[in-house]
């Protein structure tokens, strides 16, 4: 009887393992067939530099981190040799970084602050070149933000990059040995977001993008 009981238990365990393995195998198969995922992705948006149009002394600066400014709103004043020049926001946005110091000399075109429109952010997802053929404009995308686990944002593939992510790198890879080693490149894919569900997402946050094939 004991031998029979052991055999039954072993058969049950074996059946559970087989069913579990089959289920796991189906899950990964389903994921590979229906989805394309990459964690080489982040939240981004249009970076708007705030600059002076003239060289001079920064006499006034009202910029505040986290404050929203409308397009054309005055943020600072520069005293030049011919008078004063206002520094204004080129576009509507929120100051996310600033380096302006009152009473210092500023140069024309040098950024004193950076604005982002935090209501118009998107995802930049790097997809392997070997998988790019499976990605089409308009495909639905699930976006998982690392900072907010358990919450899923939705979006759409808006644009496919026309060059690899490393093409315009400041330090492109070089080969001094004369032997070329092929490395899989990634192509940037722009994903528009369909709202942020009230999450405080900001540029630079890491995400995982799952594209529906």
UniProtKB/TrEMBL annotation:
Pfam families referenced in this protein's UniProt entry, alphabetically: Beta-barrel_RND_2 (PF25954), BSH_YhbJ (PF25997)
Subcellular location: Membrane
Keyword Hydrolase: no
Domain YhbJ barrel-sandwich hybrid span(s) in chain numbering: 48-115
Major site of localization recorded for this protein: membrane
Transmembrane segments: 7-29
Keyword Cell membrane: no
SUPFAM superfamilies: Single hybrid motif
This protein's UniProt keywords: Membrane, Transmembrane, Transmembrane helix
Domain CusB-like beta-barrel: from-to ranges: 120-160
Topology versus the membrane: Single-pass membrane protein
InterPro entries: Beta-barrel_RND_2, BSH_YhbJ, MFP, Single_hybrid_motif
Family: Belongs to the membrane fusion protein (MFP) (TC 8.A.1) family.
PANTHER family: MEMBRANE FUSION SUBUNIT OF EMRAB-TOLC MULTIDRUG EFFLUX PUMP, TRANSPORT PROTEIN COMB
Identification of the protein by name: Efflux RND transporter periplasmic adaptor subunit
């Amino acid at each position: 009887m004991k031998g029979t009981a052991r055999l039954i238990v072993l058969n049950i365990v074996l059946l559970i393992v087989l069913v579990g393995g089959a289920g796991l195998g189906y899950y990964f198969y389903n994921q590979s067939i229906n989805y394309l995922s990459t964690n080489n992705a982040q939240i981004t948006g249009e970076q708007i530099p705030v600059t002076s149009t003239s060289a001079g002394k920064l006499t006034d600066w009202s910029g505040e981190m986290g404050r929203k400014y409308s397009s054309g709103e005055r943020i600072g004043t520069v005293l030049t040799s011919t008078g004063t020049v206002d520094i204004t926001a080129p576009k509507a946005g929120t100051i996310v970084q600033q380096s302006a110091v009152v009473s210092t000399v500023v140069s024309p075109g040098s950024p004193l602050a950076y604005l982002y429109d935090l209501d118009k952010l998107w995802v930049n997802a790097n997809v392997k070149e070997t998988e790019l053929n499976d990605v089409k404009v308009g495909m639905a995308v699930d976006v998982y933000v690392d900072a907010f686990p358990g919450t899923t944002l939705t979006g759409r593939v808006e644009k496919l990059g026309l060059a690899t992510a490393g093409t315009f790198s400041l330090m492109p890879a070089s080969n001094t040995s004369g032997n070329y080693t092929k490395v899989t490149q990634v192509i940037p894919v722009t994903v528009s977001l369909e709202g942020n569900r009230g999450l405080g997402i900001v540029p630079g946050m890491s995400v995982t993008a799952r594209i529906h094939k």
